[in-house]
Structure formats: structure tokens, C-alpha cells
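High-affinity branched-chain amino acid transport system permease protein LivH: structure, please.
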Amino acid sequence: MQEENKRRWALPLLFLVLAGVPLAAQWLGEPFYVTLGARILIYALAALALNLVLGFAGLVSFGHAMFLGLGCYAVGILSYYGFGNGWLQLAVCIAVCALVALVVGTVCLRTSGIGFIMITLAFAQMFYFLSVSLREYGGDDGLNIYEPSSFGLFDLDGSQPVYWAAWGLLLVSSIAMLRLRRSPFGMILRATHANPRRVDALGYSVFGVRLMAYVASGVLTGVAGLLLANLTAFASPSYMSWPVSGELIVMVVIGGLGSVLGPIVGAIAYLLMEEGFKSLTQHWMLLMGPAVVAIAMAAKGGYGNSLAWLRRRPPEAAPAAAARAGAGRTERRSPDTLAKEASL
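Here you go.
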């Protein structure tokens, strides 16, 4: 019971701490902390979205930065033509990211392993070079955004509004991920990672479940891109580059695959380390690499899951699952039973 209470309160406590960042920055007279905090929250949102396919479904998407860039350009291009309405920009962002994710997912989910990784990377590079070739929108130099997204009651004008918008979206998304993780869809999705053949044999569509997760993940990453465009007032092809996708993967891995708290903790740890090393030397990557390796080796279940109470399993779970597997039944099982059995 005590461990369960710790799990229950870890996420709310983290969001309470994050809510205090703007107040602390104002008290210290350091507005930069709000900008840094907003960037962390935006990347945490993107990492949480990536975790839906990487942590839940076990699909290593090496092109997820493509959706981050699409979200940025949805704001930039519409603003370029004088459309500063945030709701319109959000609708276009969701529609474009959903369509692209549907097409890319339909193609790449026909493969697995290294094939899936290479195809997602290929699509991301294709959109990267497409954005570079758009000279009207700045090409390789990027596109300046002079008007923030306006949502009627509030505008994303400055780091403070962006911070609170990102905080609210991350909170809602985290709650949604918690509910999804325990839902029948979430259990089937996690089961496709553990044993896709058994899931398919029991009458569930592995391809369909994974495609829905991939589309949802792409849309949420695109919304993070919309916030990033307003924070930086800039849309750049560099947001779509493969190193950004790699950074998102690192955030999820060092935070903890398959958990909800993990990607958020991973984004906080990664970006704070990055800022700390940048303040020490211009060759900060020489320090960043060993630090990431050290975290990965010290906390094999992820930094967010490194505490024992986050990774303990009930001792009776394994024998119960083994007994069910030994029965050899083939009838259609409930998603809860399926998720437990497929993990064998």
C-alpha cells in the first residue's frame, strides 16, 4: 500500500514543482529559467508522445522529429500568410500530422526491427530536405514568426504563456496516458510489444492497434512543435533532423520506457544536463555523451524508474501468468489477460 501511494503521488508532486518554476524565476529575477522550463516541458510532451510507440509498442521511430517540424511549420507558414488564429493553426497542425502519420505508419508498420527504423528515418529526411528546398519560407535559414498564435482569450506571446500552455497540455496528456495504459487498448498495445504473434492469433489486429498509436503519437508531437514555434518565434528544418529524433529517444530511454513519469523525468534530466555542460565548455558534447552512458548503465530501467518501488512486480504475477499460459487456451481473452500472457 505504501509503494502504491508513492506511485500515485510521484506525478502530481512533479507537476507541483514544475508549476513553481515561473514563481521561482520571478523571485530570483531570472526570466531565462521560464524559457528553459518551457523548452523542457515542450520536449517532455514530445518524449511522452514518442513513448506511446517506443515504450508501449516497442517501435523505435527514428523520424519522430518530423512531426515536431511539421507542427512548427504549421504555425510558421500560416503566420507568413497572415493567419495568426491559433485554433486554425492547431487544426492544420493536427490534420497534417495525422495525415502524414497515417501514410508513414501504413508503410513502415509493414516492416519491423531495422526496417522500421530505416523507413521512419527516410521519411523524416525526406521532409527535412523538402523544408530546406522551400526558399520562399526561408529554406535552410528557417522562417521567422512575427505574430504569436492567438487563441482568443490568450496569446502564446512570450515564454510565460507558452510555459503554462505546455504545462497544461503535458498534465492533460500525462493523465490521458495513465488512463490509456490501463485501458483495453493500452494493454493490447503493450502486448503487441511482448508477443505480437499471440496477439494476432487471439483475434486482435496488431497492425491496426500500432497504426492508431503511431498516428496519435505523431499528432501529439506536432502539437509540441506548435508550442516550440511560439517559444522560439522560428520554424527551422533543423527541428526535423535525425539528431533531434535521437535526442527524443534518449530522453525516453534514460527516463524509463513504457512509464508515464519516465519521459518527463528523462526530458528534464537531459536538457538540464545539456544546459549545465554548455555553461562549462563549448565542447559540451564531450561531457554529455559519457553522462548519458553513465545514467543508462546506473539506472537500467530508466532514470525515472530507478527507485525500487517503481519497478517492483508483485511476486504472484509471474506464476499466475505461467499457469494461464500452460492451459493452452485459444479463445478470445480480455485485454487485461492478454497483456499479462503476452509478456511471457
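Notes: Residues 251 and 269 are 8 Å apart (CA to CA).
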